[in-house]
């Protein structure tokens, strides 16, 4: 085996610690979104009160679906416009000693859509095209506001189960408290820990190192620790460096890799406990946590298995054999296979998109495992919206179970009707649609090309290139942001279509979650009876886990036959 026992123990301790803290953080989140007193009130209440008065916001006003959704879209649009302006005007911003120019209009649009949607998929090279000023004044604002939108939406969604007047809360209060009470304090502590783990934190853009032999090297710096902290905590994933967490300055050791993995898990694993507290049924969180852990652990086990075996195609090459630390190419030597696998599985399955390995060098089986994480988007998924996706799967499961026994489906005392199912079905169907349609257009019309030429010229001979193309669109649609390999995606077509995919893939499911929550919020409470489905049982947990796996598999398995399955080298 290419991994050692101590690494497995480290990963087990990591998950145990996260699960140990998750209930407490979930309880804290519930207090935040029910406007109960929490840590930081003395500092932030006067500031928030001033801002509410300045912008004419009544924090006691609870919004209905249309008002809440409109506020969400307006903030999203404002964020896109702001980032677009910062990217195109980058040459005029401070902290730009390299005199880097602004982005082209189409690249600026793709970047704005990417960071405003929590995707952070980059069509540019950070070190050579993005200044410290552009990063801090433009993109880092989105690193806080984008995950805050996800947290606000899931809070409103959950309120639908407890509300009876059709309202979902106040978006502006939710977004503000998400930043001040959740993201800022945790990211601040995370940044301090990352500095102690040797990540740089400075406004210096770069230094020039001179070697003994007279050669020189440019070493790019910046506020890497603070950026990385909120990048991972908020399911953003856009690394300070183009190599992301594979760059030694962003992830210098096995210990830093473990801590960064914990940052990615912390909020997504805590939100189910928040849900249980908000609906006043703490035990309702257990099936969701169990489903997340079942899928996540199976994925991790399969990923390690495929990577430990190595690619039969690569291993057959003369002079090539599996490396001591794992597969022969793509993995950084400072991490063991288990540490690297845990980081990348958690990153993809939590929709973070950071990567500490070259994903294009993975075996076909390991690539399939990563694809599945972006297909489900809910195990655990991104901050806030990931759990919202799992709730949608649960609604579908409750509806189907009710039909099978001839009862009106209900959940937490609210009926699950055709309105909720229409929105749920739309979410499930829209995900493959915004992946497969652009993939078809790119291949058939010859927009997709790489070093080996257009993919449409010989699809059978370009299974790997097709996999890279499919991964790009899947990553954008899932608001993941990771990339698999070299494809010419810095073109007008990929910038525009990619931006559209990310905007639809982010905001349509969020609107659907708000709509479903609104439908529940308009209902009166129905007392439980002897025929009510026990959603806290082991049976429902296994049913939900299988439903997530089966539905996601049925939606996407056919197209995988053209990519990872056709590559061979298992």
How would you describe this protein?
The chain has 570 residues and is mostly helical. It is built from 19 helices and six strands. The strands form three sheets. The protein has a two-stranded antiparallel sheet with strand order 1-2. A two-stranded antiparallel ribbon has the order 3-4. Strands 5-6 form a two-stranded antiparallel sheet. A hairpin with a 2-residue loop joins β3 (410-411) and β4 (414-415).
Structural class: mainly alpha
In percent, how much strand structure appears in the residues? under 5%
Total helices: the number is 19
Tell me the major beta sheet. 2 strands, antiparallel
Please estimate the helix content.
Answer: 55-70%
Q: Supply the number of structural domains.
A: 1
What Rg, in angstroms, do the CA atoms define? 23 Å
Strand order of the largest sheet: 1-2
List low-confidence stretches.
Answer: 324-328, 456-461
Q: Averaging pLDDT over every residue, what do you get?
A: 88
Shape: globular
Termini Cα gap: 17 Å
**Can you count the beta strands?**
6
The string of secondary-structure elements, in order, is: HHHHHHHEEHHHHHHHEEHEEHHHH
Which structural traits does this protein have?
single chain, 570 residues, mainly alpha, two-stranded antiparallel sheet, two-stranded antiparallel ribbon, 19 helices, globular
